[in-house]
Queue: 2 jobs
Job 1
Amino acid sequence: MYRISLLLILSCVNNIAFADCDSADTLGAKYKISSTHSESNKTTIRDLVLWRNGKAVAHQYPDTQITELWELSGNGMLRLVRNFDAYKRGIEYHPGEINNGKGDKDWKLKYQLVSTKLMKKMQLEKSTGKDCRTIEYYSLNESDAQIKLLWLPRLQLLKKLQVTKADEIIQWNLEDIVTDKAAVSQVFTSRSSYQTTDYIDIGDNESDPFLLKMINLGFVEHGSSGFYDAQGHALDGHRQHKH
Amino acid sequence: MSKKILIASAVSLAISTSAFAVGAAKPIPDYQLDNPWFTAGKANVSAKDYFSGKTKAKNVILFVGDGMGVSTVTAARILEGQMKGMLGEENNLSFDLFPFTGLAKTYNVDAQTPDSAGTMTAMMTGVKTDVGVIGVDEDIVRGDCSTVAGNELVTALELSELAGKSTGVISTARITHATPAATYAKSADRNWEDISDMPTDAVNAGCKDIALQLIEFEADMKSRYPGAKKLNGIEVVMGGGRRHFLPKDVAFNSPDAVSEIEGDRTDGRDLTAEWESVNPNGVYVYDQAGFDAINPNKTKRVFGLFNESHMQYEADRHNDIAGEPSLSEMTSKAIDVLDNNKRGYFLMVESGRIDHGHHAGSAYNALTDTIEFAKAVKAAVESVDMSKTLILVTADHSHVFTIAGYPKRGNPILGKVVSVGSDVPATAADGLPYTTLGYTNGRGFRDLGNETDADASYGLPIDAGRMDLTSVDTETSGFHQEALIPLGSETHAGEDIAIYGKGPGAHYVSGTNEQSVIFHIMDRVARLAKKAGAALGN
């Protein structure tokens, strides 16, 4: 399994022209994310496509037809538009509505899916290849998880990430890279035409069927984001309150 | 029994404080007459003598607390009092002291529980209409541009313009949001705030987005009323919603932008620049510094757009990038600009984010915005000539917000219920403590500590139902109250809301009314339609 994934990654990296190495800000990266629970030996798989277009990053979840668009604003804060592709509608979250109200300034986490803090904690074991094909091998042993990361420094993309815990193994595999600028642009321009609503305003729009669904059901949860914080813990939207 | 004995007996009885004894000389005993509740109430009634019989006002100010139901007023009053070191319940918000009060039935023509568009249209035009539409009657089909023509309603602000009065619109929401929009716009859908929000067929059919209607208000009015010689456009506009006035082009971003591209307009028009070009004697501002620099004695017109979307909650205002004025600051500045007109003025002031605090399930934000709203009312009362100015304070609708349980007097309004005679939180049948304030529906519990932005909860999942609050400080700004029914957003409520009146003609505020009566009070007291008609040569 690991060998196949690695070959796939190497294959897609080899397809990148050297000129594209300088296009880290404009690309698409398609990931397959698997989670295997050791007790049940059950594996769940889902897809995520990371799109970058300058100061905007999109996380597309094809399974749920939700695309989260993150924008870096002038003050360094992030703004989120959660696009519901099936409805061609978007819900806007302003900086203060993200991350328990603290806002979010971790642009790199959205941009490359692994926080820079985590990468700084990891140990660089070796580096292979040159230029675009440079691959860096990182590892980290935490008390509750072992993390291995294969990293493409020129593109600032993770190629493979494996988090091994006592009860679960999570793997991210880069399956394809899109460098066609027109295709990348289309991802953003198509969603910019969606009708958007501030989350604040949905309570005043009960006669809009889509928003009424939002009022009645809340936003459609999409499960763990798969992003990892400085401790290697998965970040998701399901923070539990303390009792 | 002789008279002398009777008197002696009465004195004896009074001294012994047996007020209800047979033969007492005074109908009400002295200790009752001297009771502070009694003397304050008597003074209150006496103060109303001044206002009865005054039926005409030159100026009208309509204050609207969006979503400010009666329970919100009560809780805000207590919170403000407790912030001042009082027990709280005895405190009064500024408009609590207004001499006249009535109730308004808020339902829309097609909805038992209303929205701001229909309710504000009723207040501004005297005609109840459907939910979600602005300045048009119930014959409209929401979202159908072709049904607007012939169903437009004239507003109190428009009549004031025709009459030659100065006019102003202030809101802490987007200035294109339903409540402020209902003062100047006609729209088949409250969400048509800019051209990008509209369906193509509506644009092609000639319907204008709400932001454009604001900018072209004077021109549009002149085309509707060619004989209107005193009409000169809205003098003061302040609020949020800059994105609806700017092109979708990063080059037009303001320093206050939070989005990569601040503007939403897809027609390439910069309406702020267009406003400046047609109002060379006006000032366009977008931040606190610009606001502070306005000299109201020299400035003829003000266009302030202080946020890309809604302005900040009052409690969160310090976190704005470029700084924003408070509602009370905007109110004072607006009055100082408007009162230069000898014909008087009409001003609408909305606290738009009381509603948003409730939608997010945050009593703290809803109540602190209500307190600031009351400060704005106080600022108005103190700066205008009350012998010539009618001030009405009301809400458009209520929220499912309750003050419940049996907390003892002075119990922190944001706290857990502590019963009379107890010092520990009471527990419910499930053995857990509970808060005085709560919501029937919504997103439910959230403990965000010292967070001051209610909307911070929107990025988190719904958590309705009972929680163990034993170790939670429910009095912090970031606490969101429990909700019974899980919904993505807490909802409006359908009960009546209060109307408060002060100044000439305020005595018309009484009883239980259709909400549309508010227009008729303003019209009658300021003779808006009559003066507008006269100005048109009728």
Job 2
Amino acid sequence: MKKEITVTVNGEAITHTVPLRLLLVDFIRDECGLTGTHVGCTYEGRCGACTVQVDGRALKSCMKLAVQADGKEVTTVEGLAREDRLHNLQKAFSRYHALQCGYCTGGILMNAVDFLNENINPSEDEVRRALVGNLCRCTGYSHIVEAILAASAMRHGLKPVPPPAETEPAP
Amino acid sequence: MYPAPIEAYFAPRSIDEALQCLAEAGDDATFIAGGMSLMQAMKARLVEPRVLIDLNEVEELRGLARGPRSLTVRPMTRYRELAATSALHGALQALGDAAATVGDRQVRNAGTIGGSLCWNYVASCMPSACLCLDATLVLASLAGGTRSVPIKTFLVGPLETARRDDELLIEIVFPASIRRGVGSAYRKYGGAVDGLPIVGIAAQVEVDEAGLCTHARFSVGGILPTARAFDGVGEILRGRPGTPAAFAEAAAAAADAIETQGDHLASAGYRRVLIRTLGRDVLAEAHARASNGAGR
């Protein structure tokens, strides 16, 4: 009923004995204490907030058992930044105000980083389609799409599209 | 939504080892492929496997291999890989179309063609696409070696296939002549972008050098009891040029002939409308691809 597994989480090998039925998302949150990976639905695989990367590929971690990650590399949103330097996509999310409540953000970042590795110069349509598996209950998709396109442009050394102009507060 | 307790978990590395695990595990052992359907069913307690045999580490169950007259797709090949490969261009493009629109990115990163075929959920894309492309499924068992089953026989009903409990799907073989002039396409209509198909349609069209249809296959998914092919489309199109009127006539005949169910997603009549309209468009797309392949 239990098995010892070793999962490399954000570069650190973690060995735990876990129940066979433990979902990967609960291993990450409860056993590793990494709560940036969220549960936005009732583990139905609908919301995408629990998206992490397993061996570099974005997966919903409620759709895998922890034992299936044995011997694999898992990257969560906590593993995106390098020391104090945010990932380009995180910078773009901040700059383009691509989050409101932030609940979906971790999952979207982990999906979008994988997407941008696969598609080096996506169109807006491709970005929107890549987000089908991630729900934003604030419905703030426009800024999310802009941020992902800007991160793609930043990587190409192109000047990113300027962020929305600051409006003067009404007198 | 949480799986029931699981007594044992194995992650074999070869087909032989997987079959051994199954034989030793006894009753209530289940193979898990990509898990995109099975994990949902386990969390909903529709299935409560006592023993789980994970196929994700079996390298020999992944990838594609071209033969002289066939293309073999191994069952643990993921949707992402099928959507990206150029090996399906031409006659088998319907499979690429279908794989590219399953679920979402995360699902396509994990889900597999073999898992989908063996689960045979009504609202899925792989059964109808593979039916149209006339796949043959190779099943292996410890006791009986291997046997080949045509997809039409394999697909039995909702969540039901001809696979016996002691068998493992090891190959999906598609006839693939190197002849040009064959094209195929798949489209679906669902409640959301890339969502489960209320109706999904695959078509394969072959044209001669004069641009006349010589052969066509047509299948419909999203209907009960399981995906079905309609041979009448080939009979209607044979010897005719690929015109919008011909495609509309053929798709309308399919819509009239195929029995559809009404449910909370769509009425039977609405499904027939979808078969007519999507069917017409899919035939036109398959024909256009066949014509491009013929060098015109």
